[in-house]
Amino acid sequence: MHDNRGSSSCISKVQVLEDVLNPGRQNGRYSKEYWEEWKYVNQELLGAHETKMVLDFDPEFNISTPVYIVPFLNGTGFRDLRVTGNHWDHMEHWLDDLPELTRLDLTANEIVTMDKGNFQSCPNLKHLNLANNRLVNIPPSIGDLHDLISLDLTGNEFNLDGEPEIENFTNILLRLDNLKWLNLSQSSLNNVGVLRPLLGVGGLKLLGLDISFCGLTSLEAEDGQSLFKEQEILQYLNLAGNRILVLPPRAVYELQNLKLLNLSYMHFNESLGLEFEPNHILEILDLSHNNFTSPEDMVASGCVKHLDLSNNMISSWNSSYTFIRDSYQSCFTETLRDASMPSSAVLTKHPFVKHVNLSFNLINSLSFNMRSSLDRLESVDLGGNHFECEHCQFPELQNWLQTVHDNTSTLKIFNEGSRHQLKCYSPSEKLGAPISEMKRRSNMNADCLAGNFKYDAFVCYSGSDRTWVMSQLVPHLEQGPGKYRLCLHERDFILGSFISTNIVSSLQNSKFTIVILTDNFVTSQWCQWELEMANHRLFEDDSDFLILLELERLDRTKVPRHLNYLMATRTYLEWPQHNVEKKQDSMWRRLELALGTSVLNKEADNSKFVEIPLRSTEKMEKNFSIKAQHKDS
Fold it and tell me: Which of 115, 172, 165 lies closest to 146 in space, CA to CA?
């Protein structure tokens, strides 16, 4: 606009502040008078050339687009228009003259159907957002937007039950020659039949595809070919929240330009072993919110800059080589990555990951191998884990964190995205205290070397079998001569803690784990998860701590594969169904023999001894101590 002195200045944005008035009130924001006055001020007085308009209607009011707004919108220079919060079952043709419009956002207007020619006056439209409406069929006029680059159809209710509906849906989208970004998230695709013509030979060539939470169960076509074989330029792929139980290692191998792959919320529990081209560098691999118990073997080939494993069920892992592999050179060495290998090159271990997010898992301490594997990274986020500050490995954890903090390591440790110190979770009196400031108990190392446990056994059982556990197992073991200490979830779990945290802690604080096998156990999700964690510990420390007790005969055809393997490779106890009393006595003896001396009896035995220092004699040149029994022993 021009001022009185003849100089000029430019107003780039005008924001009108007003009290919220009810629709229909004079001069209210939904009234004809309001818009006429606004048009006069905006165009006549300010001489503004409008480029962007945002109309977020109050969803509490049932507003259709008023006829008096239409003249204000049309015939202007708007390039970016957003209209949201309306209650349209049917969207009429009110976009009459918007030749410069390139971006149109019609999110959350409850649109079910549209007039056929709604987008004819927007020939230059490049970005269209119809997310979170109630569209049953894709509007045919969308197919006429040949300059469209991005289309967001998130959260609509498309009818794709039959072949005609699928054909109509895909044919309209295939007319969009320049489309590069397609969002079909939260649409009921259910199978790859809808996607195959869109992504296959002669289909769209996309840079970004979001098909998250679409109910997909597979990514393979009927001929076994990968769904993405023809998508050479795809850079962004979001598959989160689908029901794909098994992902083939080479499911995305052909995507040589892929930068971001989202596989979160997929309920995976076994390592994926994903394969990429050897020199492929993926910017982000999101595996968060799954059920992984270890970070090992996630990527078999190729490299990843940012690996997100947050919000899983990882408690520990074995290999110090978890994030490195044998290769001739680091894939992160840009100057060498595309060069041919000299004949003298030798295989050495290089990291294939730079940054790992392990926040909000079940990690309560870090073993030597776990720390060693993290040392080769540039950063790791360990926030949200429940670190035990009286764990046997706590002194080593404390020293390692101090080394990193003193900048003697290239590793950076984050706490939920910040550089704040990691905190203790237990013991309860130290909850929230920085790990670096914790003082170690003087007898901690001695306790750890002695292999002390709080419980003799953690009992893994279904709640439906509680009667037998409480009436048979607990009285016999805890009140019998063995005086065993059992850990039961309903009695010994810490109130207020996450169930998963309680389970991991109970497994680690128990010398053995007794698994009560019944049909109820096999069908219980929590029981299966407890067994999975116990199975993970089995491979971690290679000890015979797992005791299987078959309370009732199981149908092996219905038993999970890993449980079948355990029952086939180790001796297990059977609760006798016939000649009960004699055979029960035999089973109890075998169980007590497997458990050995109880924690309580071992403590009683140890208390009978005291250490007495002796002066050196002619035959002994150094001081030493011997254990002498009390007089009453």
Answer: 172
The closest of 534, 515, 528 to 561, measured between CA atoms, is 528
* 312 vs 358: CA distance, rounded Å: 8
Domain ranges for the chain:
46-179, 453-605
Predicted local confidence at residue 233, as pLDDT = 94
**pLDDT tens digits along 440-483:** 655 554 455 445 678 899 999 998 999 999 999 999 999 988 89
Residues facing residue 210 across a β-bridge: 183, 238
Residues 374, 403: Cα–Cα separation, whole Å: 13
* 3-state SS track over 449-475: HCCCCCEEEEEECCHHHHHHHHHHHHH
Task: Scan for tokens 């670096």, then name that residue.
Answer: 436
For domain 46-179, give the fold.
3.80.10
Domain 453-605, CATH among 3.30.460.10, 3.40.50.10140, 1.10.8.10, 3.40.50.620? 3.40.50.10140
Q: How large a percentage of the chain has pLDDT more than 70? A: 75
Nearest to 396 by CA among 334, 445, 442: 445
Residue appearing with tokens 């840079």? 207
Strand partners, 260: 236, 284
If we measure between CA atoms, which residue out of 374, 394, 395 comes closest to residue 386?
394
> Residue 457: which of 487, 496, 426, 478 has the closest Cα?
487
d(C-alpha 533, C-alpha 313), whole Å: 9
* Cβ–Cβ under 8 Å, residues 125 and 177: no
Instruction: Identify residue 537 by its one-letter amino acid code.
Output: R
Q: How far is CA 595 from CA 118, 458, 572, in A?
A: 76, 12, 13
Q: What is the pTM of this model?
A: 0.71
